[in-house]
Amino acid sequence: MQAESRLWGVSIVDLAQEFDTGLLSRVLDRGRSTGAAFSEVFIEDRRNVSASLDDGKVESVSSGRDFGAGIRVINGDTTGYAHTADLSERGLMAAADAAAAAASRGDGGKHVVALGPVTRQKVNNVRVVPSDVPKARKIELLMIANDAARGTDSSIVQVSAGYSDSTRRILVANSDGILATDEQVRTLFRLSAVANGDTGLQTGYDSLGHTIGFELFDEESVAELAARAARQAVTKLKARPAPSGATPVVIKRGSGGVLFHEACGHGLEADLVARGASVYANRVGELVASPLITLVDDGTMSREWGAIGIDDEGHVSQRNTLIENGVLTDYMWDYIRSRNENRPQSGNGRRQSYEHLPMVRMTNTFVLNGTEEPDDIIRATEKGVYVAKLGGGSVNTATGDFVFGMTEAYLIENGEITEPLREGNLIGNGPQVLADIDLLGNDFAMGNPGTCGKDGQGVPVGDGQPTLRVKSLTIGGTAA
Amino acid sequence: MATGSTPKRHTVDDLQAIADRIVAEAKGDEQIEVSVGRSTDTDIRVYRGQVENFVAAQSAGVSVRVITNGRTGTSHAGTLDESALREVLAEARENATFAGEDEWAGLAEPDGVPVTPQDLWNEQLASCPTERKIDIAMELERLAVGADSRLRIDSSNYSDGAHEEAFASTKGIRGSYRSNSCYASVEVLADDNGETQTGWSYALGKHPGEFDLPAAGRKAAERATRLLGAVKPPSKRTTVVLDPMVTAQFLSIIGSTLNGESVVKGRSMFANRLGETVASPLITLIDDPTDSRAYTATELDSDGLAARRNVLMDRGQLKMFVHSSYSARRAGTKSTGNAVGSGVGCLALQLVPGTKSQQELIAGIDDGVLIDSVQGLHSGVNPISGDFSTGASGLIIRNGATAEPVREFTIASTLQRMLQDVLAVGNDIDWLPMRAAGLSLVISDVTMSGA
Predict the structure, then answer these.
(1) pLDDT of A167-188, one tens digit each?
(2) Taking residues A227-253, what's their average pLDDT?
(3) C-alpha pair distances (Å), B122 with each of A127, B117, B355
(4) Domain finish residue from A205, A237, A269
(5) B343 CB contacts (<8 Å, ≥6 apart)?
(6) Which residues of B, range 280-339, sit inside 8 Å of A by Cβ?
(7) Residue of A97, A390, A427 to mutate when probing chain B, most B C-beta within 10 A
(8) Closest in B58, B94, B389 to A3, CB measured
């Protein structure tokens, strides 16, 4: 066995120790050589290991390493961007020239950038660095989960599971003098089960992911996760078609954060607001939601999937209140939008990798607790739908129309949860749904790890909420 | 290229040399497969007559798959640095030691199927100057919002990419190719009476000279303005006409249910149904990456075997599943040239067109809905159970003509029923930038959920 591979084997070292400030300053100067006011170097080193199990076998074990830099140059309203995997001075300078040319319509000039002291912001103290854990232990988790899922019920006919970890070191230096680094370690486990019954095939899915190392599995059991996913599939074998049309919907704690992510989160991103492509544009200070709702985006929740030490523009992450007691208090900001509005950044400038431009993105977005007991919310609902697990969603921010999928749901009849329902989408309009939240529980929980897509870029995000009720949502089932 | 029977074409010698060198490291009966790629991309975004973003990207990488004693390990590095090349092989070998033993694991064997040459490289695109690319995005912006004072721009974009790739394996499959492609796209907003709607469109071509920018601008403007004033429709069962883009998305999902790997692993609703009638007799579904009109036309699958034409459903009858060499070995059959990444998938789906235009199809419907766009297919469709539910917007069809716009509703059925419930297939085949071509499709008995 060849465990010694330098490319993957290195332990976590701060990137600022590998790139000296003299070099970074020269690259930043070069980026402004055609007259631009702003230049930025973003260096990213990402290592990941993944293993997948399907049909009872560990089918493949994979690893990847990406290490490169993106150079951003902003000249007036034009942004030039170039990236390279050649991290020599020659490679970085060539990228800086390309970005400067892309951004340029102006004359050359001479600039000297003085970089400040390094801001080292670690998102979390990782106890067990994934690369220090033998791969055999990662594989073992897959086998344990497979056995647990198959052992749950004889109707489980297929199981697939995946393990992955990633270690992302980033460095950001810019011509404003910022120099900052971060190390983001994420560990993820997922499982999907297929059950076969008289009504055909049904699926169950669950996942577990935190911005921590392998200690995740000291805290959480993959066997329990597997059993949950398997039971979900088995339960759905008896499910009846979901109703169609408008109905009250109760959403279980920790499963409906995606509703807020779609119903208003994206619409509060300052880049979309600036284009007038958001229904929430020009509405700060107005009541945009039920007074029960206080919505927060918080990159500092250190364990959560969307946690970051700094954002991908070098700004230290922070907690931002977006909606307070129903009143819109602020949007989320990146460098360009906050510069244009002459206001502070909010730590929401993120990118998928060094191959991408940063833009305004959420981190961990959630609704704070209300006062109701969750059981009372169900009891207060004569007829409706109880959603125990939501799938993904999407939104048109300009109209506010959004959808999200329910992957585990039940009928509520006479204040009680009764029969399971088949899958379907829920549809609503952001501002309307926010106003229609009429009961809010006191049982806040964060939800499953998510990947948010925007303009073709995916970034890890978290969401959460207490159990709540929406007075009326349209359910897209097939039953009358 | 794949099999030695290919005519002499452009080769990427430095990348091929890297791939060959790594493969030559194989020891004993170890199987190694290497792909080495290099890409250049340009993305330009224009906003209100100015370049907002200009991204010039260069990337390269190597992927290695090693199979030893039935155990598979893979590894990827996003660089072609000499030091990385050695380590990427060592890493894949190490990974293989941890994988489970799989009696079917193995690289593809050459199967003698000849490659259908495709026109994957365009010199006019390769030599297109940067200023021209910026002008295209500017012109598309003007065309899209200029026609109607209710319109404003969200973004106008030009994108192109060039890719070189070399492939080699210990089974003797080797070769290299290069390809390039381009498109322009636009998103607009339409405002009226405090309401906003959105529209989008794109222009395609082998090179920018083939773009029909006026048509793209018109389409985006029409999509946005015709939804102004849209209301939520009442809930009921109805007949829908899927616009070509929606049909293409629907076909992509149907294609995923015909994945041979899903079938052998008990994850397909169509397992054990070969030869049965699973769709309306109007449905003949073909996966044909050798049809050069398809946006995703290609010469090779990711196993390095020749891409080929496969008839999946013939007049409603299920004829075959698609396979990679791996899934085929498991299923006791032959690869259909459908390896995608490390899995299986359709490459370029199309339905055999019918005879009527969309307008003629609508003329035959008293009561229905034209589905202009759908939202949330990824969250509302389960290709294993067949449950289908999606957000939608479009136009009511009344007495054979389109009427008022509707939005914020869902359409739902099951994939199984929708295939059976196809009433008509349009003649308006549209070679969209995705793995399926579109055309208008009429489906009855769909549940519309609205107010």
Answers:
(1) 999 999 999 999 999 999 999 9
(2) 95
(3) 53, 14, 33
(4) A237
(5) B259, B261, B324
(6) none
(7) A427
(8) B94
Q: Exposure of B83 by Cβ count < 10 A (0-12 exposed, 13-18 middle, 19+ buried)?
A: exposed
Question: Residue B201's pLDDT band (boundaries 50, 70, 90)?
Answer: very high
Question: Is B274 in contact with B318 (CB distance < 8 Å)?
Answer: yes
Is residue B224 within 8 Å of residue B189, measured between CB atoms? yes
Q: What is the pLDDT of residues B336-368, one digit of tens each?
A: 999 998 899 999 999 999 999 999 999 999 999
Residues of A in contact with B55 (CB under 8 A): 80-82, 102, 357
- The answer to the question of residue A12 being in a domain is yes
CATH number of the domain enclosing A205: 3.30.2290.10
Contact B110, B2 (CB under 8 A): yes
Q: What is the residue type of A375?
A: D
Domain that holds residue A198: 6-237
Which site among B138, B408, B417 would you substitute to test the A interface, given the most A Cβ atoms closer than 10 Å to its Cβ? B408
Closest residue by Cα to residue B34 from B11, B63, B59, B6: B63
pLDDT, tens only, B387-398: 999 999 999 999
Interval B303-342: pLDDT, tens: 999 999 999 999 999 999 999 999 999 999 999 999 998 8
A369-383, A395-409, B18-32, range with the lowest pLDDT: A395-409
Report domain extents, chain B.
Answer: 13-225, 230-451
Closest CA to A354 of A172, A128, A113: A172
Separation between Cα atoms, residue A39 and residue A81, nearest integer Å = 10
In this prediction the pTM is 0.91
Residues A199 and A279 in one domain: no
Q: Are the beta carbons of B407 and A399 separated by less than 8 Å?
A: yes
Could you tell me if A73 and A156 lie in one domain?
yes
CA-wise closest residue to A63 among A135, A144, A140: A135
The DSSP code sequence of A409-441 is EEEEETTEEEEEE--EEEEEEHHHHHHTEEEEB
To 5 degrees, how large is the angle CA A139–CA A142–CA A148?
145
Residues A311/A343, Cβ–Cβ less than 8 Å: no
State in Å, rounded, how far the first CA of chain A is from the last one: 61
Please provide the distance, in angstroms rounded to a whole number, between the alpha carbons at the two ends of chain B. 57
| Within-domain flag for A1 | no
What pLDDT shows up at residue A1?
28
Same domain, A161 and A20: yes
Same domain for A175 and A261, yes or no, is no
Clarify whether residues A453 and A330 are in a common domain: yes
- Separation in Å, CA of A355 to nearest CA in chain B: 7
Spatial CA neighbour of A323 closest among A428, A440, A449: A440
Residue in A67, A85, A399 nearest the CB of B197 = A399
Same structural domain, A332 and A397: yes
Q: What is the CATH number of domain B13-225?
A: 3.30.2290.10
Give the span between the Cα atoms of B214 and B37, in whole angstroms.
Answer: 35
pLDDT at A115: 74
Q: Is A128 contained in some domain?
A: yes
Residue count of chain B = 451
Contact A53, A159 (CB under 8 A): yes
Residues above pLDDT 90, as percent of chain B = 88
pLDDT tops 60 at residue B406: yes
What residues contact residue B363 under an 8 Å CB cut-off, 6+ apart?
B400, B401
Cα torsion A413, A418, A419, A425: sign? positive
Give the model's pLDDT for residue B8: 46
Contact B102 A67 (CB under 8 A): no
B 417-446 → A contacts, CB under 8 A: none
Q: What is the nearest CA distance from A23 to chain B, expressed in angstroms?
A: 21
